[in-house]
Write a structure and sequence with these properties.
Nucleoside Triphosphate Pyrophosphohydrolase; 8-stranded mixed beta sheet; globular; alpha+beta; about 160 residues
């Protein structure tokens, strides 16, 4: 006896399309402090108040790294030197205003902070704070982003000469 061949209803297959992952860009804001060593600058999300890094959508006429630096200025009120070299990716589900969630992949670019602004676009909408590498990794969400912080901290424990 031959194997029974499985048949599919094409209408059902089209309904079950895998969700396409969209890309966001993120600035991993850091500094080297003489007293405290390597520190990371995190902000709270506007709605859930979780500790995250500044992130947003890629922008036309800007590299992904430049877009991440613009997000850092708007969301965290910091300026600095952004690396064009990504240090990793993480994924998360972004809750949308319509109640649905969208799976996103986030590309992370390190930004060495050189200036903290008093006035910036999202001032009053978020908290912002410096954390040690250990505390930043404990507070940061999602866990994949915390792993990127820990790895970056291991690789950049001392300022380069």
């Amino acid at each position: 006896m031959g194997k029974k061949q499985k048949t599919y209803d094409l209408r059902e297959l089209h309904k079950k399309k895998p969700k396409k992952k969209r890309l966001q860009v993120c600035a991993l804001c850091y500094r080297h402090s003489a007293e405290d060593g390597l520190q990371f600058y995190l902000v709270t999300s506007r709605r859930t108040k979780r500790w995250i890094a500044p992130k947003g959508w890629p922008m036309k006429k800007h590299t992904h790294a430049q877009a991440a630096a613009i997000e850092a200025e708007e969301e965290a009120g910091v300026l600095g030197q952004i690396s064009e070299r990504s240090v990793g990716f993480f994924t998360y589900d972004k809750a949308m205003e319509n109640g649905k969630s969208v799976p996103l992949t986030v590309q992370v670019f390190p930004l060495e902070v050189t200036k903290k602004l008093k006035d910036y676009t999202e001032k009053g909408q978020r908290q912002r704070r410096w954390f040690s590498a250990r505390k930043a990794a404990k507070r940061a969400t999602p866990p994949e982003f915390a792993r990127i912080i820990r790895k970056f901290a291991r690789q950049n424990a001392e300022p380069s000469a």
